[in-house]
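In this supplementary section we document a worked example of the pipeline. Step one takes a protein sequence of length 151 as its only input; no multiple sequence alignment statistics are reported here. Step two produces a three-dimensional model, which step three serialises into structure tokens for compact storage. The input and output of this example are shown verbatim.
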Amino acid sequence: MPPISWRHDLIATGVLSLMAERGFDIYPEAYLRRIEPEANKHPDGLIANREQGFSMWLEVENARKSGRNIDQLVVALAKASRGTPLTAFDVVQDAPIKLGLVAIVNRTGNRGGCLVKVKQDPQQALQVVDSNALQLLLAGRHRSIPAGAGG
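The serialised model returned by step three reads:
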């Protein structure tokens, strides 16, 4: 099984590929790091819907997170959903970031109390940051793992 960082990148690439197949313009994290190296935060990808005039900030979760890491994820998604992303990227200035999209692999489960809170109730997790209603897209993929095979 590849390292977690590889799996994370493969999941992000898969989500971005699916969105590209649907006609969206996509920008992976590696590209965003090259064009905005001093950004406050880089998403795992940006997905631009130029026809509708907005972009989505993609975050991928395939590992356990708790505390500060979850807070950073939720803040990034909340700010994107408010149209005030942590970083504004010129590449999508014609389709401003207005939506947070989180892709969660089903096996990101509860192990020792370190559950990815966003998986259980994304709206509840976002309320911790901002009590106003927020828009958030949740993309999940269930996968079966044979007994004894990894994780």
